[in-house]
Amino acid sequence: DTAVSQTPKYLVTQMGNDKSIKCEQNLGHDTMYWYKQDSKKFLKIMFSYNNKELIINETVPNRFSPKSPDKAHLNLHINSLELGDSAVYFCASSPGTGMGGDFGSGTRLTVV
Amino acid sequence: GNSVTQMEGPVTLSEEAFLTINCTYTATGYPSLFWYVQYPGEGLQLLLKATKADDKGSNKGFEATYRKETTSFHLEKGSVQVSDSAVYFCALSDSTGNQFYFGTGTSLTVIP
Q1: For B67, which DSSP code?
Q2: Which of A22, B46, B77, B88 is deepest in the core (most CB within 10 A)?
Q3: Are B101 and B91 in contact (CB under 8 A)?
Q4: Cα-based distances in Å from A89 to A11, A15, A35, A41
Q5: Which residue, among A98, A76, A83, has the nearest Cα to A7 in the 3D structure?
Q6: pLDDT by residue (tens digit) across A44-89?
Q7: Interface with A, mutate which of B96, B107, B108 (most A CBs under 10 A)
Q8: What CA dihedral angle connects A31, A32, A35 and A41, to 10 degrees?
Q9: Which string of DSSP letters, residue by residue, matches B19-65?
Q10: Is B73 on the interface with A (CB under 8 A)?
Q11: Subunit contact B100:A45, Cβ cutoff 8 A
């Protein structure tokens, strides 16, 4: 039933590890996004995909690599995790311009 | 470029008080405007939206009017409840729909 679901909800890992966060939407939306929310609640876009094609790739370290196997999925893989990567990561999807976005419940990543 | 500026928090109100959270934007073209709410420990939920000038978005007693002349989208509620305590984000989506731009969030606490 969940419209945008991302897993895991919590992720605690050591520096230097590689981890993935998965996102799936069952809304039939064309556009999917990854956002990073820092400790001050500021939301910044990382990536935007439209029909599996990368549209936006903000200034994000290339340790972050999104992958969209199909329109309903947008996964985020992070290599060589650093302390500064600790944040809440939100996946979102949207049917198009002006329609608003549906957000997942977030993945709280803690790098120790 | 596109950006959103919203009033700094935190905001603390007594139950049944009137709420205004200011939001102004800078955008090229014809953006759509949104208010999102984030309850403690949860993801972002779309609260209301407006897609063109003079549109009024409303939901759960909250309202905001898209004012092109003042580039504003202020959030208002006539009588807040304790359950409205959350962080509120103003956002815009540019004419491509490829990205949402968020304000910094305003934390609201309503006390009985």
Answers
A1: B
A2: B88
A3: yes
A4: 11, 17, 6, 11
A5: A76
A6: 889 988 888 888 777 789 999 999 999 999 999 999 999 999 999 9
A7: B96
A8: 80
A9: EEE-EEEE-SS--EEEEEEE-TTS-EEEEEEE-STT-EEEETTEEEE
A10: no
A11: yes
Q: Does B6 contact chain A (CB < 8 Å)?
A: no
A11: which 2 tokens?
């992720």
The radius of gyration of chain B from alpha carbons, rounded to an integer in Å, stands at: 13
pLDDT of residue A1: 60
pLDDT over 70 percentage in chain A: 96
The mean predicted confidence, pLDDT, of chain A is 90
Contacts of B21 in chain A (CB under 8 A): none
Nearest-angstrom CA–CA distance, A59 and A72: 24
Tally the residues of chain A: 112
